[in-house]
Amino acid sequence: MPPISEVLPFVVALAAAGVLAGLLAGMFGIGGGAILVPIFFHVFGILGVPEEVRMHLALGTSLAIIVPTSIRSFLAHRQRGAVDTQLLKGWIVAVPLGALLAAAIAAEASSTELRLIFAFIALALAFRMIFNRASWQLGKDLPRNPFKFLVGVGIGVLSGLMGIGGGVLNNTFMTLYGRLIHQAVATSSGVGVLISLPGLIGYIIAGWGAAGLPPFSTGYISWLAVALLIPITLYMAPLGARLAHAMSKRQLEVGFGIFLITVSLQFFLTVFV
Prior knowledge:
With 273 residues, the chain is mostly helical. The protein has one domain. The protein contains eleven helices and two strands; from the N terminus they run H-H-H-H-H-H-H-H-H-E-E-H-H. It has helices at residues 4-28, 33-46, 51-78, 85-90, 94-108, 111-130, 147-162, 167-176, 181-206, 223-246, 249-272; strands spanning 217-218, 221-222. It has a two-stranded antiparallel ribbon with strand order 1-2. It is globular, with a radius of gyration of 17 Å. This is Probable membrane transporter protein. Pfam families: TauE (PF01925).
């Protein structure tokens, strides 16, 4: 282990990430994983976690933190009556199934493959948000099953492979089918609950007995990082929800898009530089 003087700056960085993650959870209906995963990846590297398991540990730990954050964010949005509860009920099997499949895929994927998956999906979603036009719609209402069920599975898989709460994907899906961004954001917080709980279990099983994991880890979950960040993200999520309802649709889209581009480029750098 490196000395305290070297670890302390990264503890501070984790705390700052927790503040941003909590705000993002409320503002965009996500669990904050999009910012936690890249920071975890670098912090675990400084602490000597082997590269072979570092990205896996970052993804699993992010999902663990998303559990309470998503629940808190969902409750805050539900109080405002903006959540599409019918959609969530229809996905109560599909989304968790996808999250479990993601953990199984991650167990077989390399660290580089997982970073590239994260970066490509984030970049695609960023351009969708920034250059969004009202004409970019596939319909005026959400599609029926089985297509809707398959979309739920897909959101669970892709989100589980990115260590995120599914907000970025669900926001895109709902707005493409005529739903307002504020309702999409509110509903996405509930999607985060459906992803993070089974995702947490899946990453514990996937990483059980893996070599090189840091102390106080269970599978691909670092409980030390979880204990540090959960209180911060829980405190900040309701504030983020209030900010979301005070912003315009376009402000939410552009702000989120810029954020995703930044995260995506950062991961490409870790792979190619």
